[in-house]
Write a structure and sequence with these properties.
The complex is a heterodimer. Chain A is mainly α. Chain A has 5 helices and 2 strands, in the order αααββαα. Chain B is an alpha+beta fold. In chain B, a hairpin with a 2-residue loop joins β15 and β16. Classes of the chains: A mainly alpha, B alpha+beta.
Chain lengths: ~210, ~600
């Protein structure tokens, strides 16, 4: 204790200072005020928390909704693009020169043999125009595959006797691809043009063979 | 008390001494710890640490030890989905942007046989009528045992596949699904099929599809994302590697002209009862191939229906001897070399001795007095061979090389043949006699067309092309109109003289091919009737190659057309078989491109003297 005495003495002014400070720190009314104000603070905090949670839920829900909508729209877009493509394919099919040519031929159209060109500057007609004819039409369809010999012979034997009457049908073989009704029709027409062939041959020696 | 409390507080340095003395201090400490914040804190920390260490251990277990197992478990429950983003294959277009080969969004229809087996028969009937597939195969696939996956139909247009599967579901048929399966469509079927090629199940199998596959294919991408109840989980993990679509291939082919050429060619080959044939239409100025038709051909949207030998371009891949068409090259070279002119008078004997062989003409004759124009107009082998003896050694070969013979045209056709121009070492007088009129030398169709086009183009050879702009083949070769080269082969004067001589070929009085005339236009051309080399014996087998090559309007050429028919059995020659086809194709091309007649008159060069 003897050793602490002088130290204590030395501390006295500090203790006094510390005591003073303590005395200043303990202010009661302020604490009371704080306790009162903690309720609105809690309210604010809980509102924030609740609001946050609700907001997050709403956000999540809206994201989900957007995701559903996105899936829906995506499938709709897929359907539409598939539809567009199938229409495009249909258009391509209709644009196929073969399809157009078949339709045109069915409508009775023929390829021009020798068209004329009218020069607008000079007013001259170039080329030697000739009317389009049905002679030597362009064969549009591939010939049907030839039947194997084993499948054919008996029918052929009976036909041979009648074939003497249809002798000049050299190019009638080309029209066998049409339907059966059309076939007979086309044959008839072929024969008809076959007859006119001879009369027109005189004017169009270069076209007929 | 006021003394002890300050003692305890500054006891940071002397704490050991403070705690030791006195039980009072120790008991006070224990007493204070029981309800103190420190104890609560420590207990709390320990508890939290316990819990967290469990979490940590579990984390290590999940992420480190059994990671693979859980990943597969997650994948199997369908948590994440990886979808392939298929690259769209580039189109193959004609010169007007119309598709020759198009990529369509397709689907394959697949089934789960476990689900479909009970109602397989009814479902198979429904599917076979709606998808146009075989009933029995479908029935078999739908009722297969021991699998949960079966292909029902491949490459169905997406809209149809989805509609059919939805309808099936509406009728109560379950177990059907669709998968992505890009579809290649060839809307024009056989038009340019031998050039365009086709796609197999795994990749391209022929034609431009194969040659330019790297450019056309593009690169597939992929996307991985998390899925819940069929919907994508927002903000879930996702990785996307975008697909790189293939580039379109623009060809120089004119769809309509190609179609017409193919139809005329088919009619011609069938009419002559020939084996095969081809026809080429070339733009004189640019060297662009407007049409390259082959017969036999096939339907590119159903290649299996035709034998494989019909599916490539014989014009490009099969070498043949050009025959008399070659005389155009020989004699224009001879004029260019200054040895003859179109009016040079020749004495053509009935036969010509060449080494140990004798050269004949296609028609028997005594000694004739022909001009050079007459030699072309009447296609005299003897006259050509005799005058070709005026060439200096090696001169003809170098001319023919400059005409492009013996070298690939490199337009981008797979398996193109280079033809065969005999080497310098093998070259001799006998050989030259035969080569002069187109024997002992073989070419591909486009080579010969480009060579004839050289005359049409005033003696300048334009390299032919099949691709507009430029494109890189799988082997890294750049081809296309951007790579077009021009080189002078014969002088403009020589080309002009040759044109005049070729005009005599279609003359009804002095020429051999009046049927090749195009009404209203002046035409220059040359027939060819060559003996054909058989593939087995390597000798002439009695078959013929008949051809007609020419251009119009002769005084201002726009197109070069070359028609070849192999082995006609109707006894026809180049003039009577290929000539009419040439006329039709040329007439169509001139009309289609609005080329007015020039109003010129055909030459009246004397053919005899």
């Amino acid at each position: 204790m003897s050793s602490t005495a002088p130290a204590l003495r030395a501390r006295v002014p500090r203790l006094a200072g510390a005591a003073l400070e303590r005395a200043r720190l303990t202010v009661v009314p302020k604490r009371r005020r704080r306790r009162r104000s903690s309720v609105p603070f809690l309210v604010v905090v809980s509102m924030l928390a609740v609001g946050g949670i609700v907001g997050l839920l709403l956000f999540n829900t809206s994201m989900q909704q957007a995701s559903f909508a996105a899936t829906d729209l995506q499938s709709q877009a897929d359907t539409l693009s598939a539809r567009e493509q199938s229409l495009q394919m249909q258009l391509d099919r209709l644009r196929d020169p073969q399809v157009i040519a078949l339709k045109a031929q069915r409508m009775g159209m023929v390829l021009p043999s020798s068209p004329a060109v009218l020069d607008l500057r000079t007013g001259k007609i170039l080329g030697d125009p000739a009317p389009a004819t049905r002679l030597d039409p362009l064969r549009l369809n591939a010939p049907p595959p030839t039947k194997p010999a084993e499948l054919d012979p008996p029918a052929h034997v009976t036909v041979v006797h009648e074939s003497a009457s249809t002798h000049p049908g050299q190019n009638s073989s080309g029209n066998t691809t049409h339907g059966s009704q059309q076939k007979s029709h086309a044959r008839g027409r072929q024969d008809h043009t076959g007859h006119t062939n001879h009369t027109r041959n005189i004017h169009h020696t270069d076209i007929a063979h | 008390m006021p003394q002890t409390s300050p003692r305890g507080r500054p006891g940071r340095t002397t704490s050991g001494r403070n705690r030791r003395p006195g039980r009072a201090a120790r008991s006070r400490k224990r007493r204070s710890l029981r309800g103190s914040a420190q104890l609560r804190l420590r207990t709390g920390f320990v508890l939290i640490a316990l819990v967290l260490s469990f979490f940590g251990a579990r984390l290590v277990q999940l992420q480190g030890v059994e990671q693979q197992k859980y990943a597969t478990l997650a994948a199997s429950t369908g948590g994440t989905v990886t979808v392939q983003l298929p690259a769209t294959r580039g189109k193959i277009l004609d010169r007007n942007g119309r598709p020759l080969a198009d990529s369509v969004d397709g689907r394959m229809v697949v089934a789960d046989p476990l689900v479909t087996r009970p109602h397989a028969a009814r479902l198979a009937r429904f599917l076979s009528t709606r998808l146009h597939i075989d009933y029995f195969q479908t029935l078999h696939a739908l009722s297969r045992k021991g699998t949960r996956f079966a292909y029902i139909a491949m490459r169905v247009p997406a809209s149809l596949a989805v509609r059919v599967v939805n309808e099936a579901a509406a009728r109560g048929f379950k177990g059907l699904d669709t998968r992505n399966d890009p579809l290649r469509s060839y809307p024009d079927h056989d038009v340019a099929a031998n050039l365009v090629g086709f796609m197999g199940t795994d990749g391209p199998l022929a034609g431009l599809e194969l040659t330019f596959d790297k450019e056309l294919a593009g690169t597939n991408g992929s996307e991985t994302y998390e899925v819940g109840a069929g919907n994508r989980i927002p903000l879930g993990r996702s990785t996307v590697t975008p697909a790189r679509n293939g580039t379109d291939l623009h060809t120089t082919i004119d769809e309509d002209l190609q179609w017409y050429t193919q139809r005329v060619l088919r009619q011609t080959v069938l009419g002559a009862r020939g084996d095969s044939g081809f026809a080429i239409v070339m733009d004189r100025r640019s060297g662009e191939v407007l049409a390259l038709a082959d017969y036999p051909t096939y339907d590119a949207s159903d290649p299996q229906a035709s034998p494989p030998k019909d599916r490539n371009s014989l014009a490009m891949t099969s070498p043949y001897e050009p025959g008399s068409v070659e005389k155009v090259l020989t004699l224009s070279a001879l004029i260019d070399a200054g040895k003859v002119t179109d009016r040079t008078r020749l004495v053509v004997p009935g036969q010509l001795k060449s080494g140990d062989r004798i050269i004949h003409d296609w028609f028997p004759h005594g000694t004739l007095h022909m001009t050079l124009a007459g030699v072309i107009a009447q296609s005299s082998n003897i006259g050509t061979a005799k005058s070709s003896r005026l060439f200096a050694p090696g001169q003809l070969r170098s001319y023919l090389t400059r005409f492009g013979l013996g070298q690939r045209t490199d337009v981008g056709v797979n398996g193109e043949t280079a033809g065969l121009l005999p080497s310098k070492a093998a070259w001799n007088g006998m050989l030259q006699d035969r080569i002069a009129f187109g024997q002992s030398v073989s070419v591909n169709g486009l080579q010969e067309a480009a060579a004839i086009n050289t005359i049409a183009n005033g003696g300048v050879r334009v390299s032919p092309s099949l691709i507009q702009g430029r494109a890189t083949t799988n082997t890294g070769q750049v081809v296309g109109t951007d790579e077009t080269t021009r080189r002078r082969v014969v002088s403009a004067n020589a080309a002009h003289q040759m044109t005049q001589m070729m005009e005599r070929v279609v003359d009804p009085n002095v020429g051999v091919a009046p049927l090749a005339q195009v009404p209203g236009y002046v035409v220059a051309g040359k027939t060819g009737t060559a003996q054909r080399v058989g593939p087995r014996c390597g000798c002439y087998n009695g078959q013929f190659t008949v051809a007609f090559a020419g251009f119009a309007p002769a005084d201002k050429p726009r197109f070069t057309v070359y028609v070849v028919v192999q082995n006609p059995r109707n006894g026809g020659g180049g003039g009577s078989v290929a000539g009419p086809a040439f006329s039709k194709i040329m007439s169509f091309a001139l009309r289609r491109y609005g080329v007015p007649p020039t109003g010129g008159t055909p030459s009246h060069l004397p053919t005899t003297w």
